[in-house]
Amino acid sequence: MHNQRLHSLIFLLYFIVFIISCKQHAKPGTLEHIKEVTAAIDDKALLNADHDPGNWLSYGRNYSEDRYSPLDQVNKENVNKLGLAWSLDLGFKRGFEATPIVVDGIMYVTGAWSKVYAIDARTGKLIWTYDPKVPGRFGQKTCCDVVNRGVALYKGKVYVGTIDGRLVALDAAEGKPVWEIWTVDTSKFYTITGAPRVVKGNVIIGNGGAEFGVRGYITAYDAETGKQQWRFYTVPGNPSAPFESKTMEMAAKTWTGEWWKYGGGGTCWDAMAYDPDLNLFYVGTGNGSPWSRHHRSPGGGDNLFLSSIVALNPDNGEYVWHYQTTPGENWDFTATQPLILADLEIEGKMRKVIMQAPKNGFFYVIDRTNGKFISGKPYTYINWAKGMSPEGRPIETEIANMTDMNAETFPTFDGGHNWHPMAFNKKNGLVYIPARISSFLYGYDSSWSYNAIKDFGSGTGWNEAREPNPSLKNKFDKNAPAKHPQGFLLAWDPVKQKEVWRVNQSFLWNGGVVTTAAGLVFQGTADGNLSAYDGDNGKLLWQVNVGTGVIAPPISYLVDGVQYISFQVGWGGSYVALTESITPNIYPAHIYTFKIDGKEKMPDLKSIPQPVPLKIDYPGSQVEITKGGYLFLQYCMPCHGEIDKKFGVLPELGHITKAKFDLINDIVRKGALENLGMPNLGNKLTDEDVENIKKYISAMAKEIK
User: Which helix (H) or strand (E) holds 396?
Assistant: First the structure.
């Protein structure tokens, strides 16, 4: 009897061990497996991301956001053997900008309209999709397409910010909402396009909208409950109300006029990084609202904390230090471009630095312990400043302060570098930047008024329609590049502050990059090429064309001992709506994943029939057509592009059908397509306005050959 009980007890113990063993080794891709691996992503896992080379656990791979993969299975000798492992059609055309998160073969990525996809990264099989069902009317609140740059993962939850201003926590295994909170005042033109970050149990998220008269801030929420933990405003509010902190009281001394009526701007829509040793959280801030400082702060001033890198205490959101890249920001020269933390030997001494290539064209190396300037040099052609003071303040040229005439200014509001992530290779010490050369006519608009800020493009305070000042061009632009706009992939030495190599590209709006321990740099470009370069000299080592433009950055990860390279492909974003695609077609967004000796066939992306030009007799006087053209420029072109740019992401209106043309009034003034993202402009445009727009479209369409 005693032996029977003993055997039964032993059997029970073996059974318990077996069950535990099964749970520890759940079949990859199953619900149990996803729950196990995502629940393990805690503070320790995020802190030790560099010691977990196979996974890509956060937006920039680690808290330093260096986008350096320690993997070297794919190297310079065998990279030309990369073949397709799998691809996934994400279903529709729009801008796709996200960095995927991967943990033990489970991939999480976002798409347009803030949708989230969970994918088996071994096979490309879709596990679940979450649609936050953002109302289409919120599309008109976006400056730069209905894009999203990714998610955060923490303790079994996936966190996503939505275009309409929510922060949503999803169950990582099933994709079901656990909690959601509104992070913005929805009566204002706030949006969220950036990826959240998780630091010390808090989910941190900012927002966009500085073109439309909002006040910037960044907020931390408890990852478990969604309860707000702290909020840091980036610009001061109305001085007649109590300031939120001594920091805001200090910042207000750098402003003049009644800036709070215009929002002020300074939105935190992308750049973040974290140093756990210093316990400092870094955030890059955005442009002024409106752009022109002459309207926003007419008495001058640096306007803190616009276009700045700000260091905060992540425990309570309190200000620690700041460095302002563009004092008195005037051109939409944001400092929201990616931040990278690194330890560099400078003049024989190891320095803890933060690096950034913001829009204004300077590459900055800043001491991240105290915010002190170390060095800064132009990484692209600029003419608004002629250098840096020893303290790190840009020395402005005459171009920077034009009020009577326009000035052709390098770079533009799209920047010498935008949100497209750069990467830092720890082995050779180079930073790889998706850079560009371009110019724009800036000129003070004396007729500007705050009411106009509700319409895209008029939140600037500039009048780009005036003639440029020829004497300034002759004085400052003798060395301007003959070819612009142009994009290029730049290898930059941050210690010597100089270019090492560049690869010129056929268009300026190209994807972000990743670099690896094998000395490779991967990038997708606007012409539909996915490429690998030798990180030491820029030599092209591998390339495949996928037929449509790329703006998102690739990642590299390891599953079951195999290294993969994944690209999200989907044409769109802020610049794209106003320009013609350089690929013959725009296909629905895909994820393409490659490995050495991958054998899958590339998808058969057939040629898309191009629409025929609208040929309809809808006569109007020259005055009516001119009025219609002005309204088209203001209300239609920011999303639909110019007439006869046939390959835009959204329908180009010179090639619409007669049936759609006849419905323009219902679409524009009655919201017939509001559920698809076409805003109802009935409160902005009259019947006569719409008639004039139609006359302009008809007249322009007749000119299409």
Answer: strand 394-396
What's the pLDDT score for residue 10?
46
Burial of 396 (0-12, 13-18, 19+ CB in 10 A): middle
Distances (CA, A) of 455 to 217, 524, 569: 22, 33, 30
Enter the tokens of residue 48: 């030790």
Complete edge-to-edge strand list for the sheet that includes strand 373-378 = 339-346, 349-356, 362-367, 373-378
692 φ, ψ to 5°?
Answer: -65, -35
DSSP state letters, 305-348: TTTEEEEE-TTT--EEEEEESSTT--S---S-SPEEEEEEEETT
Domains belonging to the chain, first-starting first, are 2-40 (no CATH), 622-701 (1.10.760.10)
Helix (H, G, I), strand (E, B) or coil at 11: helix
Locate 245 and state its tokens.
């902190």
Separation of alpha carbons 521 and 489, rounded Å: 10
What percent of the chain is predicted at pLDDT more than 90? 66
Which among 629, 628, 652, 630 is positioned nearest to 642, based on CA atoms?
Answer: 652
Spatial separation of the C-alpha atoms in residues 252 and 305, rounded to whole Å: 10
From its phi and psi, is residue 130 left (phi > 0), alpha (psi between -120 and 50) or beta? beta
What pTM was estimated for this model as a whole? 0.91
Identify whether the C-beta of residue 555 lies closer than 8 Å to the C-beta of residue 107.
no
Please give the single-letter amino acid code of residue 334: T
Quick one: average pLDDT of 520-546?
A: 97
117-131, 236-250, 399-413, 593-607: segment of lowest average pLDDT: 399-413
Instruction: Please name the residues in contact with 544: beta carbons below 8 A apart, sequence gap of 6 or more.
Output: 82, 529, 530, 594, 602
Whether residue 150 contacts residue 59, with contact meaning beta carbons closer than 8 Å, is answered with: yes
The residues annotated with a catalytic role in the active site are 332
Helix, coil or strand: residue 22: helix
Contact 193, 211 (CB under 8 A): no
- Reported as a pLDDT band with limits 50, 70 and 90, residue 241 is very high
**Rounded distance, CA 332 to CA 522, Å?**
29
